[in-house]
Amino acid sequence: MKKHILSIFIFISIITQTIAQVATVTGKITDAQTQKPIQGVSIRVKGKLAGTQTNTNGSFSISLKTPASIVVTMIGYEAKTVDVTNNQAIDISLSSANSELDPVVVTASRVEERILRSPVSIEKMDIRQVQQTPSANYYDGLQNIKSLDMVTSSLTYKQINTRGFNSTGNGRFLQLVDGIDNQPAGLGFAMGNLFGPHDLDVESAELIAGAASALYGPIAFNGLLNTRTKNPFDFQGLSIQTKFGLNHVGDGTGLGAKPMSDLALRYAKVFNNKFAFKINASYLRGTDWYANDYTDIDPNTPAASRGANNPGRNALNIYGDEVAQTLPNIGRVSRTGYEEKDLATYGVYSLKLNGALHYRINDNLEAIYQMNFNQGTAQYTGSNRFVINDFQFIQHRIELKGSQFYIRAYSNQEISNNSYNTRSLGQQINRTWVRDLSGNIVTPDKADATWFQRYAAAFNGTISGVTAQNQTQARAFADQGRLLPGTTAFDEARSRLIQTTGLSGAGIKSNCSLKHIEGLYDFSSMVKVFNLQVGGNYRKYYLDTEGTLFDDKGKNLTNDEFGLFTQASKSLFQDKLKVTLSGRYDKNQNFDGQFTPRASAVFSPTERHNFRASYQTGFRNPTISDQYIKLDVGPILILGGAPINSQGMNVYENSYTAASVGAFGSGFGADMQKGVPFPTALANNKDKLVKSNVPYIKPERVQSIEVGYKGLLTSKLLFDINYYYSQYKDFIINSVVIRPNSPVTLPDGSVNPAAAADILNGNIKAFQLYTNAADKVSIQGVTAGLTWALPKNYQLHGNATWIDFNIMDANPNNIPAFNTPTWKSNVTFSNPKLTDKLGFSVAWHWQTAFDWYGTFTELRPGRIGAYNLLDAQVSYTVPSLKTKIKLGAANLTNQYVVQAYGSPAVGGMYYISLNFDEFLR
């Protein structure tokens, strides 16, 4: 079928070209003020895909069917449209303009439009801002965009979010690269830019803050980032970047500064304006930030008694000390753990290889094949600290696009065979060396209990040579034979346990994948009365973790979903009012269909002033992990909420709430202490047991209203402000239940005494179920931004964001952590042309303090202090070598800040880079 369709398109192209008159237009484009030629100017045939760029001499040549119009554009210059009728040579001069005050965006409505008239809040980082960012890379530079929050888990992994409910693994925010969802299917969220384009190949990035599900489906619940890479037809030649830097400067560890290197290459070539290709290769290597906060966070020790001398100490970034017991006449004691630096893989890297083939079948039809291979290592702070180690992420994309449509298919494949859980690794190493009182090493299943026996024996004075009632000596005795970091025995145990999955190891394996096909057609030219776009997609997930995360071993476990959307817009009252209506229907195989409408209006009394209002809805399907995880961690089994995932387990149908089991146990124990006989004590307390009523999981939902203004107060001053109010419900939460072996109720609905006896006899299993909370909460916020194009090429950008979370009447235990500062602001001051060769940029970020709640600390709060960051760079261009030298620093003042509790402290990164740009054009 595909071959027949392609043959038809080629046949139509040949017939069309024989009828139309083909002309060749040549010319030269210069700066109107300096009269110098301009390189990289885009020349497009109006209404077509065909186009080219000027070379280093400002010259171009393009073949087209006449009559036609060509559109000449360049960032920083006014666009021009020129009519052509035959073979001719034309010279065009472009005047400078503040185009970044009103750039063209495509993400807000899936069609090109001026940002001033966008129906929703949208921000854009264009190619000049990518090149000029003082941050270590373009992705880090996104932090200076208003509304955006960024948290660092690793040197190679940063996560972004907008409008609250932030996390280190954000399944509520969609990241697209060339239209491809950048998430590994098994993880359920994009790994920042660990798997994404290098700066050399980034053309622009557009950010929508807030729900975008009406056009982009379930993952765009909190917003989306759409990154576009450079088309080889538009950006030719060889570009090379070498960047060298230092981090860990003065970090207090005494280990000294560490080097970082980032080498990248891009080459693109066009043949006869019909065929083009590009290749990209980059490799970054460095030493990860250290997570070395040893604050005692043990919840069972009073705050005043916590610290390094607490026998029950549970240090934040020490692993293995979570295993603790309360020993008779001694108190709470924890095992001696291992610091993260001895367990993690701090030598991190990111390898990115990319290639794309583009073929223009005719002036209005282009076929694309693209392949991305990514491999890297990063640390990730989730319920534990995880090492995403030698993780491979492979993508294939094929696309057929015209000026009014596209059809795109792609696949994402992850290969993870060396990733592991750092906390589990510390606990498991601790179970390999414990000796009993006779000096014999015990099996891992007995190690913890034996260690506490040794501790108690030593503390109680039954061990010769050990002083009684001495916590330090008791610990030293219990730790005899402990594997020490740096020894061969420790390294061998570490390597073995990383490769061991399940309860006896720390390894995590995943070969999950997804396949996706989507399309869009713009019917506007046919309908004419209003603009109309229609689109849809189909996606299928394939789960393969070899049974380490999902119950998928030896099974063909898959998940299907599809979505359809339409959007209609109409300009009224002489183009002063633009009304847009959108609607999308999505269906996942495990859930009811979801309809998400969006309505917006933009009123523009003049071209400079634009007032907007919108009503938006969004939803988020549970991630694959939320639906299908089936992980037995010993005391509890973590169970995803899809109905098929618990089939035959009798959990939802036959279990008690954990709280009621606790109340039953306390009451029974109190009666027994009073001498009440067992049967009577059981009968007295069994009615405290409450049958659980946990619903199967379903999507989260949000409704939002927004009003705003974006306009040019003067020709050089842009002001933008908006207010939004959003209400959320059906948040995905976890609920713990206890399943006895016996039925929980009798036929008359009363509590079954046999089930109560099961609890007392240990004939039970605990489950952590994924479900939803019925509670509602709301947020509101204001963002404001100012961009001022000052004389002599100076630019000043400033923005501020205020956000307020209202828990309303909700149970705090039923609501995801908000994890967002109330206030944040950014100021950027730059001049890319201080002289013909010299430029600079300075960016300042500030945010207020807030409490971070995460599963890493079992949702107990950790304080994130207020902080500010200063990034700066100065660049010098050597025209004869086509080279730009950039000297810069991210976090210039080297303040070590933590952005998510339990994650590492991040300090300064100081670098120098050389960009050799567009050789061999």
From TrEMBL:
Q: Which Pfam families match?
A: CarbopepD_reg_2, Plug, TonB_dep_Rec_b-barrel
Q: Which Gene3D superfamilies does this entry report, sorted A to Z? A: Carboxypeptidase-like, regulatory domain (2.60.40.1120), TonB-dependent receptor, beta-barrel domain (2.40.170.20), TonB-dependent receptor, plug domain (2.170.130.10)
Membrane topology, as annotated, equals: Multi-pass membrane protein
| The keyword Methyltransferase appears for this protein | no
Q: Where is the signal peptide?
A: 1-22
Cellular compartment(s): Cell outer membrane
PROSITE patterns cross-referenced by the UniProt entry: TONB_DEPENDENT_REC_3 (PS52016)
Q: Give the protein family.
A: Belongs to the TonB-dependent receptor family.
| The entry's keywords | Cell outer membrane, Membrane, Receptor, Signal, TonB box, Transmembrane, Transmembrane beta strand, Transport
Organism of provenance: Flectobacillus rivi
Please state what the protein is called: TonB-dependent receptor
